[in-house]
Design a protein that fits this description.
CATH architecture of the largest domain: Orthogonal Bundle
Strand content: under 5%
Number of domains: 2
Number of strands: 0
CATH topology of the largest domain: Tetracycline Repressor, domain 2
CATH class of the largest domain: Mainly Alpha
Structural class: mainly alpha
Largest sheet: none
Amino acid sequence: MRKDAEERRNEILDAADMLFAQKGFDGTSTNDILENVGIARGTLYHHFKSKEDIMDALIDRYSEGLLNGAMELAKNKDIPVLDRIVHVVISMNLSDGSSEEIMNHIHRPQNALMHQKIQRVIINGVTPILTGIICEGIEQGMFNTPFPYECMEMVVTYANTVFDDDLIQMTNEERGLRMQAFIFNVERLLGAESGSLIGTLKMFRMDEENTNG
């Protein structure tokens, strides 16, 4: 049965996503993907040049989905401002599907440009989303800064580099100290009351425990 090109492309991505999670990127062959979808090799290569090309497309799809999810969280006025900030940041963690394989793939030395691409998507995509929430906080008297976008750009850039295990190796103790310093300085960047963001640190720790547990 002939299928719409976009539908067929998504079928290939869905199958690859599942197989990468089950067998690993290196352990999955193009034949595995062909058999799972039930298509000829020519059909696969019509949509993707290689297995690496499929992984790139999966990363693009994850990035788009994460940004859309972050936007939905940011719009939810039923969630308090501080909680929304944390939820948006946490939502950027690739925590579903074949995330481990995706992160392993991104962090390989030969994929440095892909890693930069993901960081660029996060910095350019998450910063304006968080800025909108910060502006709400300014209106509510929680924050006091004339530079909401610039503050969030600094925050997202720092969080996206320092807390990237591929760039800086840290023990749990070192990570904990950096988180405390991070929250301490974010309060000052935003002109927030001292100690007002400490609750966000607890939320981050709970999320880490749930992820590791």
